[in-house]
Design brief:
Layout: E1 7-11, H1 22-26, E2 30-34, E3 39-53, E4 58-62, E5 65-66, H2 71-81, E6 86-90, H3 92-98, E7 111-125, E8 128-133, H4 141-149, E9 158-163, H5 167-182, E10 188-200, H6 203-214, E11 218-224, E12 227-233, E13 236-241, E14 244-247, E15 250-255, H7 260-272, H8 274-292, E16 301-310, E17 314-324, H9 331-338, E18 346-347, H10 349-359, E19 370-374, E20 380-383, E21 388-392, E22 395-404, H11 410-420, H12 422-425
Antiparallel strand pairs: 1-8, 2-3, 2-11, 3-4, 3-7, 4-5, 6-7, 6-19, 7-8, 9-10, 10-18, 10-22, 11-12, 12-21, 13-14, 13-20, 14-17, 15-17, 16-17, 19-20, 21-22
Length: 434
């Protein structure tokens, strides 16, 4: 995590990581977890920038004080004015509004984005800890040790889920998309379904077990005004370092069994599957177009096309698209160009989002929006919150979805939705994107 703190100071963790963090997490600390390398960032939140839906527009406030402009413009101005980074998330519906895409109606007071300023954080790789600070003074190790020592027993958590519509409803929705494709309305659409259920335990215990099991490259546990966001994402939506931009869309999946010979054969079949390749290619072209709108002409390139990447239970087709930002590119313009992510909408975006606004069971919320960090320099790393639960009290909503093409089989699409819930329930099996 390239966040350029002003002060760095080693710290000996009092207990194994991340169990020692649970006390702070239950008090609302923000946690970004990079499971494939064991890297994590536990941040003490400061002032919050929050956008909520009013009667006709988004109301954005910083520390309770109203801010002018659109949500993305307010976020850009706020981030620039502070010396520290911001950690948080934005919803799919807010991203649609900023990009002028049709979306589901949301009720008044619905949270659209929530970002917190981070003045101090604990950075961990493996069992090695380092305190980071962006303020005038270095962090106090004694204070942090006290915070990390005062923790209770490791809790347990479990989740039960049920889809909000039936297999027949899903089949009808899939076939309607296929009819639109044949009519020339669009090429691929990402159809998503909410699952709702009950959480036994607390979000912190659920995150501890889920991160250990799933090892998500872009995990996060954020407390957004009492709404917990638990993301087990493996997809980088958008990153920036200076004038370098890149995105890593995922489309295409096959189970990972642990048998090297069998998994290699499955990877070869995945790479050759015409449905998966067609779907991936269409989304890849969409991401190239999105970055091209804010890039130096001719700088957009696919540097790693359709690589097969393994995760604990699945293999995915992942591409890396890079570009050079045009001079003076601001945060708001960049976010409007790329969000919402092409791999969770479809192509072309306007036509697909118009259809999904009528076809899906409800607003997605933070699922398929963005989650991660943004620095005052404009550098950022945002994941696409797939494999993501939104938790309010003991009620949990978890969306799953998949790209629908003219080759899609409705029965297989429905089965894939069920498999994807296992990322959060902990049952064994494949969990493909998104």
């Amino acid at each position: 995590m390239d966040l350029a703190p002003k002060h760095r100071q080693p710290i000996q963790l009092p207990r194994p990581w991340p169990a020692c963090a649970q006390g702070l997490l239950r008090q609302g600390a923000a946690w970004l977890h990079t499971g494939d390398t064991g890297e994590g960032l536990l941040a003490l939140p400061g002032p919050a920038l929050v956008s909520t839906w009013g009667d006709q527009t988004w109301d954005t406030r910083l520390g309770g004080k109203p801010l002018p402009g659109s949500p993305w413009a307010a976020l850009e101005a706020t981030v620039k004015a502070q010396p520290c980074p911001w950690i948080g998330a934005a919803s799919f519906e807010l991203a649609c509004d900023e990009a002028e895409l049709l979306r589901k109606p949301v009720e008044q007071g619905r949270l659209g984005q929530h970002w917190v300023a981070v003045e101090e954080a604990l950075h961990v790789i493996g069992d090695e800890g380092e305190l980071w600070s962006w303020g005038a003074s270095p962090p106090d190790p004694a204070t942090w040790l006290a915070r990390l020592t005062s923790t209770g027993a490791l809790g347990q958590a479990s989740v039960d889920l049920a889809a909000l519509w039936t297999e027949e409803q899903h089949r009808w929705a899939v076939e309607r998309i296929q009819a639109c494709i044949l009519e020339g309305g669009f090429y691929v659409a990402n159809l998503c379904v909410p699952f709702e259920g009950h959480l036994s335990g607390d979000p912190v215990a659920l995150a501890l077990s889920a991160f250990q099991r799933a090892r998500p490259p872009f995990g996060a546990l954020l407390n957004l005004d009492g709404l917990y966001l638990l993301s087990l994402s493996m997809e980088r939506l958008l990153a920036r370092r200076g004038d370098r931009l890149w995105s890593q869309p995922i489309k295409g999946s096959t189970p990972l069994t642990g048998d090297a010979e069998q998994d290699l054969a499955a990877a070869v079949l995945l790479l050759a599957d015409p449905k998966e390749r067609a779907e991936h290619t269409m989304i890849l072209d969409l991401v190239r177009n999105d970055l091209g709108r804010v890039a130096v002409p001719g700088s957009v390139r696919v540097v790693r096309p359709m690589a097969v990447e393994p995760y604990p239970t699945v293999q995915h087709l992942v591409s890396t698209v890079e570009a050079t930002a045009h001079p003076g590119l601001g945060l708001a313009e960049l976010l409007r160009s790329v969000l919402p992510g092409g791999s969770v909408t479809g192509a072309p975006k306007h036509a697909v989002c118009t259809h999904l606004a009528l076809a899906e069971a409800g607003p997605r919320g933070f699922y398929c929006g963005a989650v991660g960090w943004i620095s005052p320099t404009g550098d950022l790393d945002l994941a696409l919150p797939i494999r993501t639960a939104q938790i309010q009290g003991d009620q949990l909503t978890y969306w799953t979805g998949g790209g629908i093409t003219r080759r899609s089989d409705p029965g297989r699409e429905w089965a894939e939705l069920q498999l994807k819930t296992r990322a959060i329930t902990g049952e064994s099996g494949c969990a493909g994107a998104p």
